[in-house]
Amino acid sequence: MGVIGLGTMGAGIAEVLARSGVSVVAVEIDDDGVHRGRGHLEHSTERAVSGGKLDADGRTALLDRIRYTTSLAELSDVDLVIEAIPENLEAKSDVFAQLDKITGPDTIFVSNTSSLSITEIGVRTARPGKVVGMHFFNPAPILKLVEVVRTVVTEPDVVTDVVAFAERLGKTPVVIGDRAGFIANALLFGYLNHAVRMYEQRYATREDLDAAMRFGCGYPMGPLALLDLIGLDTAYEILDTMYHQSRNRLHAPAPLLKQMITAGLLGRKTGQGFYTYD
Length: 278
Ligand code: CAA
Prior knowledge:
Belongs to the 3-hydroxyacyl-CoA dehydrogenase family. It comes from Amycolatopsis keratiniphila. This is 3-hydroxybutyryl-CoA dehydrogenase. It is a single chain. The radius of gyration is 19 Å and the shape is globular. It has helices spanning about 10-20, 30-50, 55-65, 90-100, 120-125, 155-170, 185-200, 205-215, 225-230, 230-245, 255-260; strands at about 1-5, 25, 65-70, 80-85, 110, 130-135, 145-150, 170-175. An 8-stranded mixed β-sheet has the order 3-2-1-4-5-6-7-8, with helices on both faces. It has 2 domains: about 1-175, Rossmann fold (3-Layer(aba) Sandwich); about 185-270, N-(1-d-carboxylethyl)-l-norvaline Dehydrogenase, domain 2, CATH 1.10.1040.10. Helix 1 crosses helix 2, helix 7 (about 185-200) crosses helix 9 (about 225-230) and helix 9 packs across helix 10. With about 280 residues, the protein is an alpha/beta fold. Acetoacetyl-coenzyme A binds near residues 45, 114 and 137.
């Protein structure tokens, strides 16, 4: 299998695949990207070992199943390729256009997009029937859900195969048509956005907002800490897409989100968001 893009999500997905015994060709745009992606995988698998989820030999075997490259041409033999590059339709279309020429006609094209339409991505390839979404959740090695997103032209057998594949990875797949936010984000992001508005209107401190949802509702993280984990730029894209599709004010991104993004406060990945990280 191929994984393209080794940011937080791509590296996590490569880990999930390799953990299940799948050989992975992992593609990044340049050597720095490969270096960063390898770093994500090493760090995450170290945590798996220290948490008793993997032994040292298992970790070595997992890491050995991943071959890193900066060349898409090395994906010529893969059965399925998962794209997890930044959320830009042109960039994704360009990658899949190249893959159309490199891979065989039966190779399944998967996108991990959370804010773009799988239909839009699919119709720009030469094989829309073989294009499907597989939306993993952050952190991908830990969270079980995978949303399998079918379009009106995805071949039913492709959906069946991808659902079976997700199960083989130890995930819990759910199938959804191509709507903005799919299932989980459509339900989650109104709540997250509302929390930003409460914070921006100074109803409560960030700590009290987060504590309310953790200790009152049993959520593993409060909404502002979760936004820092997701990345404020990613959250903005998801909200904006849903708002444009539904015009539901619940999803109109809170102004503070945009201000923080402009100031470079994207969350954990930049060391600062609602909270500060080492
Ligand atoms: N592989 C397997 N297991 C691993 C691991 C790895 N690489 N790294 C850590 N673990 C295990 C740990 O051993 C630990 O196991 P136990 O619970 O059995 O001890 C467990 O995973 C949790 O790890 P940590 O102790 O490091 O972390 P934590 O307990 O503080 O939990 C968290 C952190 C998993 C992030 C948790 O707070 C959580 O689930 N938060 C909510 C995250 C969430 O909602 N994500 C969805 C965001 S929306 C999205 O992603 C969609 C999108 O499109 C943006």
